[in-house]
């Protein structure tokens, strides 16, 4: 069976199934709502203590970025909007506390899950995690105990939360598998940092796997084998040994240049959402910030962040990178990513609607504040400005005109900034990819955003689980568009990078290099692995391989070919 590979590696071992307690929460009327309110607030206090313990445990055993997940949980417990809704249900409707918590949580989860945005969908995991914790305290119920393993095993359950992951005994946890979840969940983030092979979203898992069954779990492909035959077992033991050998040697290339065997220099950058991610970038030897997603600053704020607030946030990343490039994407919000403090109309097709550069060109007062903050930060390092969701030349020209007006304003106010700051575009719309020869004449650089480019090219909502098999970074049409953009950018002599998930895919990296891509930006933990792969390659040897991949007709054929090509490399030599 197959799920979603969320943390790479091979796990082989016996299954231990943790059935999470399924508690039916019934609506009850209480005679003393004030007393019920006190019971709820007591549960909040205990939940806060547990979250602080989880924070300390994860900070010590995993790292500060992962521990920040529990900081967010603690803040949510103090959020008057969240707790206030629950308290109003208790008081106004004389409702029992656990039912009130579930009602408010279910409503928020539904709102977040309906958003076509990975960051916002991950917030639904937070709501589930927190509400489950509070309800169990209210009911004095137990739950799945991940701390009592007696021997090494693969943990199997319906779902894993960040709190569950924080309890794992790393030395005894070979891998984890769940029926629900995906790559952007906080549980998946912690699993990757802890290097625990993990597969999530494996529908029907609990109907197929029994306690004590021998499992093979491939955290990269998402494959799960139940009680495999000897041939399959031997094949995956060999794959496991090769991968562990590969991981063991990654530290050898920290501090070394990313240069192919035939001397082609490649830049490996990181995608970040805030200055909190900077430690992870530096720890993994990132050579740049290839994508700074500024919308997180807006999403985490109760109101539009001021120019000074934005400046301080951008400056901390720019200065922290010590002269290495930082690509700052302007506000990519609207449609599916709603801000309570902005009046954004409801839309039937938000991904095709009022978002990103379209919103910024319409709401220029918001756009100019951000551009001033970004330009001011450019005085402290090497900044490039990236415009998202550009679909026509008119949008690019309008954005550049506003940028020039903003520069003029700063000059008049004698505020320093880098006069040579570059402005480029996200290539994530097919029209832009097709016309990239024209865009290359008016852009300083391209950054290919494959996450959206895929869904726009193959007409598949990347958040729709039922259509997941059709959403593929290996689709030949997508790769042909990528090749077109690379060729047109290189011909014009401008930088061409990639910042989508495809950039960190080990199977695609050789093909992308063969196409001529020399700037990759990915999640920080993927950087050293990508460097090792690139230092094992000759670009000249891969040009024919890229042409062959582009000649194939289906995503499955391309993926198989890319996998075979990667396996042919001796990454442990």
What do these coordinates show?
This protein has 573 residues and is of the alpha/beta class. The protein has three domains: 4-17 and 149-230, Phosphohistidine domain (Glucose Oxidase, domain 1); 33-139, PtsI, HPr-binding domain (Enzyme I, Chain A, domain 2), CATH 1.10.274; 264-567, TIM Barrel (Alpha-Beta Barrel), CATH 3.20.20.60. The protein is built from 23 helices and 15 strands. Strand 11, helix 15 (393-412) and strand 12 (422-427) form a beta-alpha-beta unit. It is globular. The model has no long low-confidence stretch (mean pLDDT 89).
Query: What is the CATH superfamily label of the largest domain?
Result: Phosphoenolpyruvate-binding domains
Shape by Cα distribution: globular
State the CATH architecture of the largest domain: Alpha-Beta Barrel
Structural class category: alpha/beta
> On the 0-100 scale, what is the average pLDDT?
89
CATH class wording of the largest domain: Alpha Beta
- CATH names the topology of the largest domain as TIM Barrel
Largest sheet geometry: 8 strands, parallel, barrel
Strand order of the largest sheet: 8-9-10-11-12-13-14-15
Instruction: Work out the strand percent.
Output: 5-15%
How many angstroms does the end-to-end distance come to?
Answer: 32 Å
Count of distinct structural domains: 3
Number of strands: 15
Q: Tell me roughly what share of residues is in helical segments.
A: 40-55%
Q: How large is the radius of gyration?
A: 24 Å
Q: What are the low-pLDDT stretches, counting only 5+ consecutive residues below 50?
A: none
User: How many helical elements?
Assistant: 23
């Amino acid at each position: 069976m197959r799920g979603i590979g969320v943390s790479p590696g091979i796990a082989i071992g016996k299954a231990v199934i943790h059935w999470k307690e399924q508690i039916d929460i019934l609506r009850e009327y209480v005679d003393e709502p004030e007393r019920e309110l006190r019971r709820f607030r007591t549960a909040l206090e205990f939940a806060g203590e547990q979250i602080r313990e989880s924070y300390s445990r994860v900070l010590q055993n995993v790292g500060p970025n992962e521990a920040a997940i529990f900081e967010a949980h603690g803040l949510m417990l103090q959020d008057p909007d969240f707790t206030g809704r629950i308290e109003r249900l208790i008081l106004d409707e004389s409702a029992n506390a656990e039912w009130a918590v579930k009602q408010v949580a279910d409503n928020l989860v539904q709102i977040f899950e309906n958003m076509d945005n990975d960051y916002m969908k991950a917030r639904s995991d937070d709501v589930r995690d927190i509400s489950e914790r509070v309800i169990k305290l209210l009911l004095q119920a137990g739950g799945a105990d991940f701390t009592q393993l007696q021997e090494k095993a693969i943990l199997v359950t319906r779902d894993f939360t960040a709190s569950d992951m924080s309890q794992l005994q790393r030395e005894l946890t070979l891998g984890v598998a769940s029926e629900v979840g995906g790559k952007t969940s906080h549980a998946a983030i912690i699993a990757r940092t802890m290097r625990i092979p993990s597969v999530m979203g494996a529908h029907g898992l609990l109907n197929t796997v029994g306690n004590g069954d021998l499992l093979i779990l491939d955290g990269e492909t998402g494959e799960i084998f139940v009680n495999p035959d000897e041939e399959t077992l031997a094949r995956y033991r060999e794959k496991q040994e090769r991968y562990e050998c590969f991981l063991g040697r990654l530290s050898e290339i920290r501090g070394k240049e990313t240069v192919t065997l035939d001397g082609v220099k490649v830049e490996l950058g990181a995608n970040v959402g805030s200055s909190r991610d900077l430690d992870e970038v530096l720890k993994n030897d990132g050579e740049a910030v290839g994508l700074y997603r500024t919308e997180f600053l807006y999403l985490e704020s109760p109101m539009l962040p001021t120019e000074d607030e934005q400046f301080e946030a951008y400056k901390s990343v720019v200065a922290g990178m010590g002269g290495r490039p930082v690509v700052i994407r302007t506000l990519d919000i609207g449609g599916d990513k709603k801000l309570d403090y902005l009046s954004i109309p409801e839309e039937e097709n938000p991904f095709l609607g009022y978002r990103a550069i379209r919103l910024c060109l319409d709401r220029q007062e918001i756009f100019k504040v951000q551009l001033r903050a970004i330009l001011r930060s450019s005085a402290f390092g090497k900044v490039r400005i990236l415009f998202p969701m550009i679909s026509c030349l008119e949008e690019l020209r309008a954005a550049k005109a506003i940028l020039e007006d903003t520069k003029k304003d700063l000059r008049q106010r004698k505020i320093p900034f880098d006069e040579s700051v570059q402005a480029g575009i996200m290539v994530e719309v097919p029209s832009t990819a097709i016309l990239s020869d024209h865009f290359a004449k008016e852009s300083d650089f391209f950054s290919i955003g494959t996450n959206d480019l895929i869904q726009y090219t193959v007409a598949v909502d990347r958040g729709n689980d039922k259509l997941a098999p059709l959403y593929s970074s290996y689709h030949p049409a997508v790769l042909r568009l990528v090749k077109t953009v690379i060729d047109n950018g290189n011909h014009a002599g401008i930088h061409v990078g990639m910042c989508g998930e495809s950039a960190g895919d080990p199977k695609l990296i050789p093909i992308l290099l063969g196409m001529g891509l020399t700037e990759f930006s990915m999640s920080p933990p993927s950087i050293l692995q990508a460097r090792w792969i690139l230092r094992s390659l000759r670009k000249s040897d891969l040009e024919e391989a890229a042409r062959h991949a582009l000649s194939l007709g289906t995503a499955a054929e391309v993926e198989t070919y890319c996998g075979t090509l990667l396996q042919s490399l001796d990454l442990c030599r």
